[in-house]
Every structure is written in C-alpha cells, then in structure tokens.
Amino acid sequence: MGIESNLRKEGIKVTEELDKIKVNTIAKNVAQKIVAAFPELEFKLGEVFIKLSQLKMYYAEVPKGFSEANYFYKNTSIYFNQEVPIEKIENYAIHECIHYLQERKDKAGFLLRLGLCDLTQYKVHGLALNEAAVQYATAKATKEPKDNVKYYGISFDTISPTCYPLICNLIAQMAYVTGEKVLFDSTFNSNNNFKETFIEKTSEDTFYTLEKNFDKILKLEEDLLKLNNKMELSDNLNSGLNKKRLKIKNSIQSTFMESQNLIITSYFDTAFERITNLEEVENYRRSLYNYKDLVGYVDGIDTFNEYYIKTMNKLENKYNELEKGIIAEDEEQEIVGLPAERRNKFQIFWQTVKKFLFKSGEEYKREEN
Question: Looking at 45, 70, 105, which one is the last position of a domain?
C-alpha cells in the first residue's frame, strides 16, 4: 500500500507542505530542547539538528479526535493538524521527532524497533509502553509543570495532564524503579536496558503484565473516544451506550490500579528481601516513603497506605534484627556499641510517621506538601 493510500485510510488529507526554512526552524528548536533536557545521554546538538532537518513536514486535515501531529516512518514525514497555529507547532513536533530519532530499520527499510516497542517478533510488543515513554520525555523536554488531575476517579500528579496522562504516570512509576536515565536511554537508543533493569528489580512476569496493561489502557481509551463520538452524533440518550461507557471507564480505573499495585508490591517486596544492613534499611524506608508522590488515589481505596503501614512494621522488625546482630558482633569483638541515636534512628522516625496511620490516601499524600 502506498503512502497516499495509507494516509487516506487514516483519514489524513494533505493541504500544505512546510517549506525548508520552517522545517529547519522547527528542527533547530526541537533539537535544542532535547539536548538540554537529557544531558546524561550526551547528544550532539549539530547531529540531532541535521537528522531532524531531513524530515518532511505537512499540514493536513485530520479526523476528529486524531492526534495534532503524526509521524509516518515509511516516508519520514510528520503531518500536523492544519488547525494548529505555527507558534504552537513545535510542542507537538517534539513527540513525533522523538519517534523519528528512536526508529531502527533494516537495510530494506522495514521498521524493527521504536524505543521500547519491538516489532521483530510475530506480535508487536511495547507499543503503548513506548508511547508513554515518548510522551514522558516530551513533557520533560518542554519543561511542563507538575499538575494534579483526576481521570476516571483516579487523582494523581503528572507532567502530562492532557496527553496519555494515565500511562505517563505509570511509566514515571516504572522509571522510579529503574532510574530515569535508564528509561530515556532505552527510549532514544532503542535498547533493552530499561526492560532488563526493571525485570532485575521486580520480575519478568511483572514487566510483561504491565506491558499488556499499558496496551489495554490505551485500547480502552480509544474505544471510549469512539463511543463518545458516536453518542455525540446520536440524537437520543441511549442507555445501552451509557452503560457501555461506564463499563469502559471502570475497566480503565481497575487496570490502572492493578498496574500500580503490581509495580509497588513487586518492586518493594523484592527490595525488602535484599536488605542486608542498616544503611539499606534507611534507603529502603526513604524510597518507600517518597513513592507516595507518584501514586494515583481513588476515593475509598487506600491500598498504598495499607501497604506502607504493613511494610514499615516489617521494616522495623528487620531493623531490630540487624541491629541486634551488629551489637552482638561488637560485644564479641569487645568494641563499644553503636551510639544510641544511630541505633534508634529508625524507631524515632517510625514513631513520627505513625500519626499518618489510618488516614485517607489523599490526606496521607498531602501531609508532606
């Protein structure tokens, strides 16, 4: 199928090609933002600009609900909604330019990989995971401020409040496990470092379940968009469509919460079992406590708070066991025991945070703000 046929199939009709001056201006500004946002990846500004300047860019008529910009790898072109003003086009271009930078093709021009998305197998893996990573990187590049939003009954903070907010929040939670540098390395360089690091810190089953859940959330949101468009065209209030709409929303919420809980339990349970000294107890305690800033909350569901309380009690026991071992070892070697303030550091902290017990998730989340 040719490019024009592909475009027609997607409902895209080209209205204008951007001239070389506009393309170069967009390429220069996008390159500067990407290089500035990810210094750890050691991009060369000139190299990124030269590559992006090779893109073709078009204005086009696009169907309602379609993205404001779309990258087509077959002809290395970006198609912008003609309704987007030129002064706002760069922000939409960044997402698509990242797709262009991350693509890997074989000698025949067939697409093999896009960041976290692997197209070499019989079934495509990581499509939604990659979309989340690219949008998360885009929000970083444009320096979007963190915003508190509520979708499908889930309240959470995000730097991408209007584009893929749910899966962007989940990819941020996964990046908390691996470190953002690892995530962005795999996003831009199309390698398995993120996948392998996440699996090492959780499990293979966890990673593949999340990969499927990302795809599921994206598909459900697409289904909801189509259903909303259908309801807008309908003159009468259709109770059947309303029930279907509610069912999709509930499914999105449950899939998000299932994914979030899986990340939390898999990562922190695994990390707990690897604690061997008091310093690691403190690092674990801090890591678990800080995770609250990423969590999505649903009214009446306090899963993270419950997990936090249960795990902190286990951690206190772990601390006591390790401390006794150190004291016994010191006594055996006739060495003065650890200072009381160091020995009691964890207990002192735990007493102060017990005031959070049995609060709602939302109250708990805001306590440190």
Answer: 105
Residues 6 or more apart whose CB falls under 8 angstroms from that of 221 comprise 166, 252
Number of Cβ within 10 Å of residue 87's Cβ equals: 7
Range of the domain at 339: 275-369
Residue 282: count of CB within 10 angstroms of its CB: 15
The enclosing domain of 54 has a CATH number of 3.30.2010
Q: Is the pLDDT reported for residue 339 higher than 80?
A: no
Q: Give pLDDT tens digits for 186-215.
A: 999 999 999 999 999 999 999 999 999 999
pLDDT tens digits, one per residue of 217-260:
999 999 998 898 888 777 666 778 889 999 999 999 999 999 99
In total, how many domains does the chain have?
A: 2
Count of other CB atoms within 10 angstroms of residue 319? 23
- Both structure tokens of 220: 């459900």
According to the model, what pLDDT value does residue 237 have? 65
Q: How far is CA 184 from CA 172, 177, 196, 222, in A?
A: 11, 13, 14, 26
Closest to 140 measured CA to CA, from 88, 192, 175, 102: 175
Question: Looking up tokens 């996003």, which residue turns up?
Answer: 187
Domain-ending residue, one of 71, 105, 139: 105
Residue with the two structure tokens 């019989």: 122
Q: What is the CA radius of gyration of the chain?
A: 24
